[in-house]
Here is the input.
Amino acid sequence: MSASPGQVCSHCALPLASVSEIINDPGDPELRFCCPGCAAAHDLVAGFGLDQYYQRRVLDADARRIKPDDSQEGLEFSLYTEEKEKSGQTQSTLSLVIDGFHCAACGWLIEQVLARDSRVTWGRVNMTTQRLSVTWDGPADQANDILAPILKLGYRLFPFDVERVESERIARETELLKSLGVAGFAAANVMLLSIAIWAGYSQGMGPATRGMMHWVSALIALPAVVYAGRTFFRSALTALSAGRVNMDVPISLAVILTSAMSLFQTIVGAEYAYFDSAVGLLFFLLIGRYLDSRARSRARSSAAHLLALTARPVMVIQADGSTISLRPEAVTPDMTVLTAAGERISVDGVVLQGSSEIDQSLLTGETLPVTVEPGDAIYAGTLNIGQALHIGVTASSSGTALAEIVRLLERAEEGRARYVELAERISRWYSPVVHTLGLATFTGWMIFGADWQTAMLYAIAVLIITCPCALALAVPAVQVVAAGRLMRRGILLKSATALERLAEVDGIAFDKTGTLTIGHPVLVGASSSEDLQAAINMAAASRHPLSRALVRAGQEQGLKPDTSRPGDIEEIAGGGLRARTNGEIWLLGSRKFCEIPEQTGEDNNGPGPQLWFTRRGHDPVCFSFEDELRSDAAEVVLDLDRSGYSLAMLSGDRTGVVSALASRIGIRTWFAEMTPTGKYDWLSEKEKSGNRILMVGDGLNDAPALAAAHVSLSPATAADISQAASDAVFQGDRLMPVAELLMVARRAQKVIRENIFFAFAYNAICIPIAVAGYVSPLFAAVAMSVSSLIVLTNSLRLGKI
Amino acid sequence: MGQSIMENLVYLIVIALALGGVGIFGLFWSIRSHQFSDMNGAANRILYDDDFDPGPKADNK
Here is the structure.
């Protein structure tokens, strides 16, 4: 039975046009499935009475289809389960990342399915982070049993160690949020009381009432300052004990001095107290800190999510031939590991048995798989797309080449962490200057014969008026607005200083595959539809990227693969496909595999990979493929070139391919056949000669270069390691975000400079007034609030441009 | 008369602070019970009619 175009599988929504055997539901003619797994999953959902799921869900094109497969067979969830004794009963808890999460309905379905299991006491999906946490009464080894229905639905689950990856970030964010709440409460109440006090000055409030108001303010403000100011005080202390000054030093001093002096004024029954300034300052600053931390933690948690996907147990073959699954950390060299088809390899080793094709794109960025045979080396992080392999382990977990690269990256990142932010550079001399000024005011007034209390009052007025409120807000306010704007466009900023470094960039280096191009091959050139039809009938049986590209191309021309036609199809690793049809042999694969002599065929050195197709009685056909450019690549490159950036392309690919592509999109400087070290050296060289380069790349081979560049950017499809190494990640199939990011960074830097200029102008006017002793508390309060508001308003402009 | 305004003021301040304290307590409670950890989930869950309770939160925090 064949499907009409546009029909999709009722469970996983796979277009049925590409499926050879459609399964119909005996009960309902409306239901059609692409495979028995999907039919079973649908039965399971219907059996639970949860079929509303199919109406409720909204499919997400970016998420993996929930097509059940056996890729998670053998994964022992109990290895990751935590057992606890609670009132005499064993309770087990497991945290998992969900792969295949489309929308809230998926979360609902998973929760409902778990709720049908009487052992489960808690099963909750966090829809923001796409994680599942399950607790059940019973020992840990029931884990697989409990999760089985969810796997049958087609979701993949990956154990995720919350404690290790996230606890520190969550604790910090919670502390900020609580501080923000306390500061907000205190600021609102103290300001209300202040309004009464200010009104009292003109309406003749008695000293007793005013004193009481001050005491109530102190009662609210002092605990709030201690609680909400912790973050700043701690950071200031850390900086001071390391012999440095950061922005938190003047903030802490201003807050502490203001509170202390206000308390003193309250005790002696003086007219003015400044509690509102102290808590107001903390409140404003905490808003900035909290938003900033949230924006960045979102980017970081998606990176952590990706890392969890690669941490999988390993199937170890024991001496007696039986297999056990172990955590990757527990695998030692000289063990033999079994890697199933479709599985990511998590050890370094040598192939002992079997031959297969390995997708090394995570390591090399190359889209085409390589063939491995017994004796060939294999690396952790690569994907086995052919047949099962037995691998003799040479290194595992932290000893793998992958782990070594990660360590190199971390070292490079530390180097970049030493980059000094603008705000930091200012605060390095700002605090000594301000504090000297305060001291000079005090000694000056003492020398001119004022009593120590007056002198102290004036000195503190100087410190309050120069309070770094506007200055401390100048940078974070802009960063929050810019990060929010970029996030709406699908760009996640990971590093706090990325914007600043981006604004300094004068050159851009692009990787080719996956960066300027989308990263998967596309059929180019025309071939007769009869040939194409015959070829896709065979290709549909294979998972090789070129086969899939061929099938896709066929579907675009309205052809449907029919795998029943060619008969028995056999996939030969590293060669191609062989089919036996009516006694004839059809071959689809490499030139060598199809036994085509080197001279024949049109384009011998075509730019991209090729597939050959031979049948008896037909001329051999050559299908050429090319990696498709991002749709707006040429446009964006031209745009960036006009804006005055020097552009370069660094690729590991062959010279012919790279030069063709460079001339097509208009990049004049290009380098082909570059090794990862070559890219790294080129960038270091440029950095040394004073250039500031933005590196845009995706492969693991780009990762050292990404870390070495002044600032770096990765597409969201990039290798996990590259995303971890880069300062920002962009989503989507377009290159536009690169230009957008640079534009926003430049604007942001301009607004930051305006803010800082304004903060200084404010100080230049107010400091002399304060030193002369003319600052009344009302003046101080108004001037400070107005300066903060102007800085905030100016920063908000950035979101609208 | 003046005396009673002062007295009212004392009550009002205490009441205002108590209400504020309830607010702060509410914030701390909601942070502790993870209400801020899944904002998307809360927004979506309310759309599903079939209320069900996934059980008491296990004491793992």
